[in-house]
Amino acid sequence: MGDRGRLVVPAELRERLGLEAGSHLLLLDTSQGVVLATRQQVKALVRRDLQGTSLVEDLLADRRRASDKEDSI
Questions:
Q1: Considering the domain boundaries, does residue 4 fall inside one?
Q2: What's the chain's average pLDDT?
Q3: 50 in a domain, yes or no?
Q4: DSSP letter for each residue of 22-66
């Protein structure tokens, strides 16, 4: 890292990933360390992690539990 906080991505990696000047990259702070990823890579990670998860069903189940709890009081 340079003194102005700039990172240098090696040419081989830039070519392999199709990165150009101005490409958007994200730094993710994880429990295993810092990960540098493209937006597309982060989208793929999030989709993989959420696969099989129904946020609507989870929300409805939470609401039903809260309603049942209120009814029992």
A1: no
A2: 90
A3: yes
A4: T--EEEEEETTEEEEEEHHHHHHHHHHHHTT--HHHHHHHHHHHH
Give the pLDDT band of residue 53 (cuts 50, 70, 90).
confident
pTM score over 0.85: no
Domain presence at residue 2: no
Q: State how many domains the chain has.
A: 1
| 3-state secondary structure (DSSP) of residue 69 | helix
Contact at 8 Å (CB) between 37 and 43? no
Residue-number span of the structural domain to which 40 is assigned: 11-72
**Average pLDDT in the 46-65 region?**
86
